[in-house]
Amino acid sequence: MKSVLYTFLIMGLFSIINACSSIPEGATAVSPFNKEKYLGKWYEIARFDYRFEKNLINVTAEYSLKENGTIKVVNRGYNYVKQNWEEAIGKAKFARDENKGMLKVSFFGPFYAGYNVISLEGDYQYALIAGSSLDYLWILSRSKTIPMDVKEKFLKIAQSIGYKTNNLVWVKHD
Hints:
21% of the residues lie in helices and 39% in strands. By secondary structure, the chain is an alpha+beta fold. It has one domain (2-22, 30-170): Lipocalin (Beta Barrel), CATH 2.40.128.20. The longest helix is centred in the first third of the chain and has 19 residues, at 2-20. It has an 8-stranded antiparallel β-barrel.
């Protein structure tokens, strides 16, 4: 009985670890990936409507390298309902190889979620990000707008993987 319980415990632990470093079927993380070029400020252009980003506009994500090699993540947005700025500080690290845009990010202690850079355009000016499942998707830009051709390319990529892009929230920036 103990060995069966131990086996289930190991399988559950493996599932949790694998979930934070997984990528949706059909998606491929960018490789080669240049961490230094990815660092800096990004504007959120579109996202699915997640509970933790509800009612946010002017959303940005800023990535900086920490001394220990992990990446500091600062997400910030203005809640137009509560009329205040909200900020979440977390950390990211590579799920596997630093040469591949497959990371995991945490805002809650030891719990990580998949963060997969699946397309880059304009020499790290525009990025399409997939979570670990079809429930999470972001379009990011170094500026508050994105060219139509890049937007259309990202939407086609996301749709080909199975994302329901008609559910995207297009983020307002002042």
